[in-house]
Design goal:
Length: about 375
């Protein structure tokens, strides 16, 4: 069914709720309205003071990230990692036991997890080999559009895709987004976009309010432990999601750390490190491909890459003997005998390769 208003897709009972109104806060006033401790903890070295609640919404952070992504502040919502963004989108728009989402397997498992928690139906569309482009793990756009036309509420597209590493074809994504207009939300998860040679999807999102982009600071600025993500969407969607997301979710130390990470000098360091990771990714891929028992090393636009070997357990065991953990995806659809290898520092990558060669030689697997 076509929808003239994007919020017609949201759960009707949530559209009517009134968001929580926190106590007033103005800098310079003595706070006797929030039941806080007036004393700063002896181990507290934060600027704001951890005895004071963080702001209901981290507005300084939203302003900083809006400037970085060249968007307006009303188009961004900060979340605790992009995983929380996935959660509130599904909870906000999908009615349990009634609505459905589309995922393109193999892909990031959190889409499935949060859909299951909300008791939302899942349509799984396997990724395909694009023979014309000689590329594996590409979107079956016709099948996805068929599900949109059948009433799927939400489509999740991860590009670059986790765990396969490659980017989806832009024309396929544009085709899906155009088909979804007025019918479904398309969520483009860009967690690894800073490692990709492709442009981001801001232009598509800006011209189609049924498209939402997700970003994370876990990879690009090395803040996985801070848990900082963002929803980039039409202001209507952002305002609605603020009803679903409770206030005070973003801790004061996290706000201060992220603001420091986006200072000019800090960003230069992050960009330099990202370039190193991209170069190291290609070196590591090339060296791993030389091992005779490796059947395939897929191209990557991420800070990791996918491999296939019929000696998977021996490879994982050999890596562990060198002090390195790599991730098996043996039990994932379409990924039998596959593992994901995350790119590390040049020094650690050398330790991994040298140790791996030594261990595999001992086992006569190489």
């Amino acid at each position: 069914m076509m929808s003239a208003n994007i919020l017609d897709l949201a759960r009707p009972e949530l559209r009517e709720i009134t968001p929580y109104t926190p106590g007033e806060y103005e800098s310079g006033f003595i706070r006797m309205n929030a039941n806080e401790s007036p004393y700063q903890n002896i181990g507290d070295n934060s600027e704001r003071g951890l005895n004071i609640y963080p702001p209901p919404r981290p507005l300084t952070l939203q302003k900083c990230l809006a400037e970085h992504y060249y968007i307006e502040e009303k188009e961004i919502l900060m979340t605790r990692g992009s995983s929380e963004a996935i959660d509130i989108l599904i909870r906000g728009f999908c009615t349990a036991s009634k609505d459905s989402i589309v995922i393109c397997s193999p892909t990031f498992d959190m889409y499935r997890l949060y859909a299951n928690i909300q008791n939302v139906n899942i349509h799984e569309v396997p990724l395909l080999r694009n023979k014309n482009l000689d590329q594996d793990f590409q979107l079956d756009s016709d099948a996805i559009i068929g599900l949109i036309n059948s009433g799927a509420k939400m489509v999740f597209l991860c590009t670059p895709n986790n765990p396969t590493g490659g980017s989806m074809q832009r024309e396929d994504i544009k085709k899906i987004c155009n088909a979804a207009r007025g019918r479904s939300l398309v969520i483009i998860d860009e967690a690894y976009s800073e490692f990709s040679s492709q442009d981001n999807y801001r232009a598509i999102q800006k011209n189609n309010e049924y498209v939402v982009c997700l970003r994370t600071l876990s990879k690009f600025v090395s803040l996985a432990g801070v848990r900082c993500g963002a929803v980039i969407a039409a202001p209507k969607i952002i305002k609605f999601l603020e009803k679903v997301l409770p206030p005070y979710t973003f801790p004061t130390p996290s706000i201060e750390l992220v603001l420091k990470a986006f200072q000019k000098d800090s960003l230069k360091v992050s960009e330099k490190r990202n370039n190193t990771i991209i170069k190291q990714r290609e070196i590591l891929r090339s060296e791993i491909a030389k091992i005779p028992t490796i059947d395939k090393v897929w191209p990557s636009d991420s800070n990791f890459f996918l491999i296939k070997t019929n000696k998977l357990n021996k490879l994982i065991s050999a890596a562990k003997k060198t002090g390195v953990l790599i991730r098996s995806f043996e039990n994932q659809p379409m990924l039998k005998n596959c593992a994901r290898i995350s790119v590390n520092t040049p020094e650690n990558n050398d330790i991994f390769l040298n140790g791996l060669y030594a261990e595999l030689s001992k086992r006569e697997v190489i």
